[in-house]
Design goal:
Strand content: 5-15%
Oligomer: single chain
Number of helices: 23
Protein name: non-specific protein-tyrosine kinase
Pfam families: AAA_31 (PF13614), Wzz (PF02706)
Enzyme class: transferase
Keywords: ATP-binding, Cell inner membrane, Cell membrane, Coiled coil, Kinase, Membrane, Nucleotide-binding, Transferase, Transmembrane, Transmembrane helix, Tyrosine-protein kinase
Helix content: 40-55%
Strand order of the largest sheet: 7-14-13-8-12-9-11-10
CATH class of one domain: Alpha Beta
CATH topology of one domain: Rossmann fold
CATH superfamily of one domain: P-loop containing nucleotide triphosphate hydrolases
CATH architecture of one domain: 3-Layer(aba) Sandwich
Organism: Sphingomonas guangdongensis
Length: 727
């Protein structure tokens, strides 16, 4: 890009040095509004196109209705039968379990159940009738799949609602009643399928348990039979919890203990009796004798006899017969008593012998029983093993029996782990095309598309259009804008050429634009430049018309002015004023005519024109024979201002030489037509030739457009001061 230096401007008019403006955080709203107003028709066209496209899509779209039903998953559901373990475990309620139910709802099997329940094959959109809407390949499925499963699945959306236990079922159809039926039937079939699956599982488990019970019952009987046979074979029959051998040993033990006690008692009585006899007691004080009734009677008789003997002796003396008889009786009694005591002692000895003999017999029987018990204990190890196996089989059998009873109690009573939360109503408005949404979409995206088109147009627009383009992109002075004549007249038609309109309407907005341009060309101190060159980057940018109008403006300001047509190839200025075959400029440069004869005077003003309507016969530069500086020096002797109408800078190299000789150079850029790159290249060439570039002016501006040259230019406010002009 270009950078303005002291060489780019007139020597005596340097621009003030300004501090670099701080870049604002947000773009200028006025600038955005100006861009929008400039591109208003583009915005409206794109917005209308988007709106029309949305409307066309909405109108040609087949109405599709959406109906929604919801089912509620119930993870913790009470058993129908209390205190009975359920065959089917309830849903856990975690995210994975809920997602599993969503997949079940989305399955082809459930879709097939719905298709059968609603007889969907009779509807055209499911392949029924002549107007089938589903391709044959979409109706088919894999092996075992319902032929309409895929078609139904394509019409239904299943989704979990947030993090809740609710699952939404949304069915879509061109028939609003059918959409509601499909959504509701999906919910019903899901509940029914889950209940059926649970009851089927209970029946299956119950049947399997019955088979296992029969098998286990046979195993229990076989185990019990093996135990009994083993007991019989090994003499391990028992009563009251113990074997017969154990009972015999136990009984013998008790009898032996009694026999031993009895023998000890007999030994004690016999030993005491013998001890008393050894002491000479005669056995009268033996305990057994003392306890005998016979002994007691004899002792009483002995006592009575003794007493009677004593009485008779005292009364009759020893020799009395009664005394003798009494004494003999006493002897007999005592003999009987002794015989009785001897008999008792003999009985004690017999009892002792009998007790000892019984103890010995019992001990022998016990030894035999213990030998049999030892043999039984060895066989009992095998019996315990058989009993453990029988108990294990019996325990398993009992578990199966209990579980079978629990399972049979649940048959036909299983409920689904879900319920219908809400059924769908028949939708009134179609889901798609959603007309309100389409309108909202158009209201939102049509302006966005329009603004996007404006942004793209601005980005791709490489034309010089505004004051900001000149100052920020070309980096040269902006010296004004020249309006298109028609744009200053509102709806009035133009009957004359712009140069003529300038003379006939000196108070018009068009004439004021050239007075502003003339003011912009003034040097420092308001000194009128002696030579002003008008150029442009490309042809057909209005240089000749601008040169004529500017020259007439100088004349109107009282300056003696000459307009030189330096564009000898096009000769637009010369053809505007001079007759055919006028070769004044060529003759003057060749030296065949003096300046006064080469000039042509404007019949409508005091402007003089130096030009030629005849093309040169040579191909070299116009000022090859006579340097431009010499020509200007001679012109300055007769005129105060020399206006040079030059050829385009990019087209003719000589233009740079001519511009370098001028006191002030005005470069024109056709509004919204001149390429930014071309203008930039032209400025570069002028600066490279050390031309005194006064600035760039925008030409042929349609000032009717809002902010046509930028919101900072005077034409942004032309409607406010249009009353000052007489157009």
């Amino acid at each position: 890009m270009n950078v303005m230096t002291t060489d780019t401007l007139a020597d005596d008019d340097q621009p003030p040095v300004q501090a670099k403006a701080k870049t604002p955080l947000l773009p200028d709203a006025s600038l955005l509004w100006a861009v929008f107003r400039r591109r208003l028709w583009l915005f409206l066209a794109v917005a209308a196109l988007v709106t029309a496209g949305i409307a066309a899509w909405t109108l040609q779209k087949t109405p599709i209705y959406a109906a929604a039903a919801t089912v509620l998953i119930e993870p913790q559901q009470a058993n129908v039968v209390d205190n009975v373990r359920a065959v089917n475990a309830p849903i856990s309620g975690d995210a994975a379990a809920i997602e599993t139910e969503v997949q079940i709802l989305s399955s082809a099997g459930l879709a097939g159940r719905v298709a059968d329940a609603l007889n969907l094959q009779r509807y055209p959109e499911f392949g029924g009738g002549a107007g089938a809407m589903i391709a044959e390949q979409d109706r088919g499925g894999g092996p075992g799949m319902h032929p309409l499963a895929r078609a139904v699945q394509s019409k239904v959306r299943i989704n979990r609602i947030g993090l809740s236990y609710l699952i939404g079922i949304t069915a879509e159809s061109s028939n609003r009643f059918l959409a509601a039926q499909i959504a509701n039937e999906y919910a019903r079939q899901y509940i029914a399928q889950q209940a059926e699956a649970k009851n089927s599982e209970v029946s299956s488990v119950s049947s399997e348990l019955q088979k296992r019970l029969k098998d286990m019952e046979g195993k229990v009987l076989a185990a019990d039979r093996a135990v009994q046979q083993y007991k019989i074979a090994n003499n391990l029959m028992s009563s009251q919890g113990s074997t017969l051998a154990e009972q015999e040993v136990s009984n013998l033990g008790g009898q032996i203990a009694g026999a031993r006690a009895e023998l000890a008692s007999a030994n004690a009585r016999l030993s005491a009796a013998r001890t008393q006899l050894s002491r000479g007691g005669g056995g009268a004080d033996v305990g057994a004798a003392l306890g005998s009734g016979t002994v007691s009677g004899l002792r009483q008789r002995e006592a009575d006899t003794t007493q009677r003997l004593a009485d008779l002796t005292t009364r009759y003396g020893d020799r009395h017969p009664d005394v003798q008889r009494a004494r003999q009786e006493l002897v007999d009694v005592r003999a009987q008593l002794q015989r009785e005591i001897d008999r008792i002692i003999s009985s004690l000895s017999a009892e002792q012998q009998a007790a000892a003999s019984r103890l010995a017999s019992l001990s022998g029987s016990q030894s035999a029983a213990k030998g049999s018990l030892a043999s039984n204990n060895a066989a009992a190890v095998g019996l315990l093993e058989l009993e453990r196996k029988a108990d294990a089989v019996r325990s398993i059998y009992q578990s199966f029996l209990n579980r079978s009873k629990e399972t049979m109690s649940q048959e036909g009573l299983e409920r689904a782990d879900a319920r219908i939360d809400s059924l769908s109503r028949v939708p009134l408005l179609p889901f798609t095309p959603n007309v309100p949404l389409a309108i909202a979409f158009a209201l939102v995206f049509a302006p966005i598309a329009g603004l996007g088109a404006i942004a793209v147009a601005e980005y791709l627009d490489g034309k010089v259009s505004t004051k900001q383009d000149v100052e920020h992109k070309l980096r040269v002075r902006y010296i004004g804008a020249i309006p298109q004549l028609e744009s200053t007249l509102d709806k009035s038609r133009v009957a004359e050429a712009p140069a003529d309109y300038l003379l006939e309407h000196p108070a018009s907005a068009f004439a004021e634009a050239f007075r502003s341009l003339r003011t912009a060309t003034l040097l420092k101190g308001r000194v009128v430049p002696r030579t002003v060159a008008i150029t442009s980057a490309l042809p057909r940018e209005g240089k000749s018309t601008t040169s004529i109008c500017l020259a007439r403006t100088f004349v109107g300001a009282g300056s003696r002015t000459v307009l030189v047509d330096c564009d000898i190839r096009r000769r637009s200025t010369s053809q505007e004023f001079m007759p055919d075959n006028w070769s004044g400029l060529l003759d003057f440069l060749a030296g065949t005519k003096p300046l006064q004869e080469a000039l042509f005077k404007d019949p409508y003003s005091d402007l003089y024109i130096l030009g030629s309507t005849v093309a040169p016969s040579f191909s070299r530069d116009l000022f090859a024979d006579r340097p431009i500086e010499d020509v200007l020096a001679e012109l300055h002797q007769h005129f105060e201002v020399v206006v040079l109408d030059t050829a385009p800078v990019l087209a003719i190299a000589e233009t740079r030489t001519i511009a370098a000789a001028a006191d002030s150079v005005v470069m024109l850029a056709r509004w919204r037509s001149t390429s930014m790159k071309a203008a930039d290249a032209a400025v570069e060439m002028l600066l490279g030739a050390h031309a005194k570039l006064r600035g760039v002016a925008l030409n042929l501006v349609d000032i009717r457009r809002y902010a046509s040259t930028g919101y900072q230019d005077v034409y942004s406010y032309h409607k406010k001061f249009k009353g000052y002009y007489q157009n």
